Amino acid sequence: MSKNNIDAYRRKFLVGTGVAAAAVTVAPGLLLRQAQAKPADEAVTDKVRWGMLIDIDNLPNGGQGVVDACKKEHGWGNETHSNDKQKTHWVRTVKVTEKLTKHSFQLPVMCQHCETAPCADVCPTGASFKRADGIVLVDKHICIGCRYCMMACPYKARSLVHEAIYDQKPDSPRGKGTVESCTMCVHRVDEGKQPACVESSGGAIVFGDLNDENSEISKVLKEKGGKQIRADLGLNTGVRYQGI
Amino acid sequence: MFGKAQNILATMTLLALASLMVGCGETAPELKLETAKAKTEHCVEPDDVMRRNHMDFIKHQRDETVHNGIRTSKYSFKACINCHIPAEKDGKPVNYLTDDHKLNPEHFCATCHAYVGVQLDCFECHSDNPAGAAPADANHGGTAHE
Q1: B145 to chain A: closest CA residue
Q2: Exposure of A226 by Cβ count < 10 A (0-12 exposed, 13-18 middle, 19+ buried)?
């Protein structure tokens, strides 16, 4: 490489670093927002891992508001022919009481979006899967309704639709013979919006990117911590709780 | 050259084949394009391409959307419905099934699918009209087929 070439190379390198530094100093907030609302034609990546932190002490109505918001967003729970055991539940409230002290609390339980999801492990068709950004979903196009995932899930997060469904929400296709569960409102997340339950929670649920240490959820988790349900299973869930 | 039995057999075969063709003179149904034309001049592909390949387009897009989160509107199923199906007719949503669970010829997709006798599986899970896009009571009833 001659001297001129080296100079040209240096100049290019310096200009490049200058631009990168400017991008970092000018708009960290802007870049953060871009990371949330990805362009519609771009595939999701594992740079992001979506998660939720639920503070059950501040949840209005013991989490019932969360259930209602989810029903309204996705239209589940309107089955008319199914019995109580067959009815679908994307999220339910669970009351826990300690036997000795009688201390009890109530928490909303839904798909915990495990890093190593047992449902996806056992699915014979590949219909249960984890998206690159950590959201665990059912591809109902290839779900055969065998319910193996329902057996595998330690959180009882999934349910099977037992009857023909009409008037679905355009963003939440639901049909007889397929398994369904919380989608972390994937259609909203892809648009850069928050899940419906988070919006309804009055700040008691924080949603964000667990991989980004500057996101609100990561900061709160770092400072105050958040528990997993059945942490002993080592599933590294995307949903964490405070106050349990 | 042929025996009598063979002649009879040939005639019967012809008759049987002819009976299969009963109804073949029926012309293809007129497509209800008014709703879409009111919104845009052209579909995302030329008409002949759409007629032959629409199922491949939406099938390819469905995998991209479900697994990779790609939500471009060009081959989006939701975009098809929003453009082709009217929000409502006579104050009711246009459903793909009639009250007696037959394909409803008023529904854009059902028009052709009824004619060619191909099942419309999409709507067993997907919303068949854009009316559901509006926030509505999750427990509402009173639709055409309840």
Answers
A1: A166
A2: buried
A20 Cβ neighbours under 8 A, 6+ residues apart: none
Q: Does pTM surpass 0.95?
A: no
**Any domain includes B1:** no
B73 and A170: CB-CB below 8 Å? no
CA distance A54 to A56: 6
Nearest CA in chain A to B75: A41
Residues B114-130 have pLDDT tens digits of: 999 999 999 999 999 99
Strands A136-138 and A159-160: unpaired
Domain extent at residue B103: 31-132
Closest in B70, B124, B143 to A43, CB measured: B70
Could you tell me if residue B144 is inside a domain? no
Q: Write out the E strands in chain A.
A: 50-55, 91-97, 104-110, 128-130, 136-138, 159-160, 179-180, 205-209, 239-242
Largest CA distance in chain A: 82
User: Is A167's CB within 8 Å of B140's CB?
Assistant: yes
Are A155 and A112 spatial neighbours (Cβ–Cβ below 8 Å)? yes
DSSP-assigned letter for residue B107: S
* ipTM at complex level: 0.80
Assess if residue B68 is contained within a domain.
yes
Task: Write out pLDDT tens, residues B15-31.
Answer: 666 666 665 556 778 88
Q: Which of A92, A165, A132, A112 is nearest to B69 (CA)?
A: A132
Q: Are A206 and A221 in contact (CB under 8 A)?
A: no
Give the count of domains, chain B. Answer: 1
Q: What 3-state DSSP class applies to A33?
A: helix
B68 exposed, middle or buried (CB, 10 Å; 0-12, 13-18, 19+)? middle
Q: Is residue B127 in a domain?
A: yes
Sign of CA dihedral A172, A173, A177, A178: negative
Chain B: give the shortest CA distance to residue A202, in Å. Answer: 20
Across the interface, whether the CB atoms of A168 and B68 are under 8 A apart is answered no
Q: Which residue among A72, A164, A173 places its CB closest to the CB of B138?
A: A72
